[in-house]
Each structure stands twice: as structure tokens, then as C-alpha cells.
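Section 4.2 – Deliverable D4.2 (structural model, holo form)

The reporting period included a commitment to supply a predicted holo structure for the target in complex with alpha-D-ribofuranose. Inputs used:
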Amino acid sequence: MGITVIGSLNYDLDTFTDRLPDAGETFRANRFETHAGGKGLNQAAAIGKLREPSSNYSVRMIGNVGDDAFGKQLKGVLKDYNVDTTYVGTCSDTSTGTATILIEEKVGGQNRILIVEGANGKTVYDSKQLNEIFPKDSHEEEYVVFQHEIPDPISIIKWIHENRPSFQVVYNPSPFKAMDTGDWVLIDILVVNEIEGLQILETIFDNHFVEQVKEQIKDDFIGEYRKVCEILHKTLIDQNKKGTVVMTLGSKGVLFCSHENPKVEFLPAVKDVPVVDTTGAGDTFLGALVTQLYQGEKLSTAINFSTLASSLTIQKKGAAESMPMYKDVKNVM
Ligand code: RIB
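Output (C-alpha cells):
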């Protein structure tokens, strides 16, 4: 097998503007564009585009679209990047998921995203279907990648844990949803941004502790997030004795640690990048990271490759389409 992404496919409706309107105000924006998106599709596309070209492992997308033009287009985009769409279902009773994205051009292409789940709400599988998606006789290593734009990734993760324990589970809790503290141990590779990192902390510690951390972040951003990363690793993810935590800090860089190297390391972001649109930067990072780890690279090498890949994505508009190919990243290494 290879790498499987179970998640969302969205049709992105992007409006580029100098600023956001106030409540009740009408404001003239600069441009409107449509792009392929959804965190699941973006991550699958990133894996398809960023895997080492001579490698022959498969990349699969598992999810749903509506029986409409958007859905057909999204499947087509995945096929263009050699992602297997056998298990992308077409639902006749609902439309393809959408994301309305406002991109503020004067503040570094930062975005605000509103999603309507549509067919992503149907991405729920019972044990019989999971047995078909992940046949028991497969002996190859499998990575399975999840985000949280589908109803219940955790129950699928639990099924994998019980039925295919050799698989590596990669989880990006975005949009964030609290889960039982004991369930974090089911994750092998946790990829969060700094906001999600604090949101997880809020579910395990009292308010006072988290408020204190937030105060200290103002004085020592990297140092304090380093501690957050360490707490997530030690108290949640590495309880399985093989857990890895990667925390992205936007334009600042990335923190990471693993069972083998529990001391949190920091890699700064690429400097002086002309930012056009940050949509899909996190998904590019995650897809790149997964390909590199699957191909057997060291965590630090994988993080370096992924940082470069996402620095290329933000220089172009859109999500999946703006992601670089493997050779583009190698060219800037
Ligand atoms: O991570 C970026 C993605 O988030 C967009 O493509 C949008 O569809 C939302 O899912």
C-alpha cells in the first residue's frame, strides 16, 4: 500500500481583498477565484506532488463529493497529481463541500475560512467498509493521515489501532475539536499549529495554567511554545513510546520532537518570502513531512524539506494548485 488520506474535499471560493468589511459595510474587494481545496484533498495533493518521483508507493484519497461539477473537478485535480480516487464517493443527496476564503492582501496574504461540510459530512465508515479499504492481507507499511473536517476521524483511528496496529496514524486536529485525553495516545505523529497546541493544552490543564503560558508567550515566544510541545509529547503522544510532535509557528518556524529525540528542536522559517496567499501552507507542510518520513528520512531532514515546500506554496495563489513538485523543493535546498 502506501499513504492514505481520509478527509475533506472542498471547492474553495477565494476573495482577495485589502481589508475585511465591518459589520453592515459593503466593501469592494480586488478579485475572486476558485480553487481545489479541503484539508484532506490538499494534503493528498501535497503527498502526490512531493513524493520522490522514482518511488512507487500509492497515495489514496478517501472521502466524498457531491454529484455536481465541483465534485468532478476536485476528483480530476487529484488524478492529475496521481492520487488514487477509487474511494472518493459521489453523494447524490448533498453538494460538494465548500470553503469561503477571505485573503487579506495587505497583511501577508493571511486568510479567514468558512467551511460548509456538504458531502464531507458523509465521510463515515463502518467496520465492513474499513476492512475493504484496508485489506487485512496487506503487509506493506501504511501511513494514514487525518484532519478534522469530517464528522468523526477518531472512531476510524480507534478501528485502525485495534485492527491494523502496524499502521502509522498521522493527525492534524484542524479545525480543533476536543477529545478524551486518553485518545491522544492513538496518534503516532501529531502535527499542530501554535493555536491548536494551546487548544489541546486547554483540554488537559486548568484555565489558570494556560493563561499563565499565554502571558509568558508574549515575552518568550519560542521558549514557551517549546514547553507546550514538550508537554504534548510527554503527557499525551509519547505514551505509546513511538510518538512524534511537530508544531508549526507560522512565519517563525517549527518545533519538533520524537520518542528517539525527545528534546524539542527548533527550525526557523525561510526568511524574506514574498507572500501572496497562505492558504494550504499547513497542508503542504504536512504532506511533505509525511512523504519524507514514509521514504525513511530523519525527522529533522523531513522538517527542513517541508518548511521549504510550504515557503514555495505561499508565493502563489490557491491551495493544491500552488503546491510545488518534489524537484522544485530540491532546487531551493
Ligand atoms: O487548509 C486550507 C483549507 O482549509 C482550504 O483549502 C479550505 O478548503 C479549508 O478546508
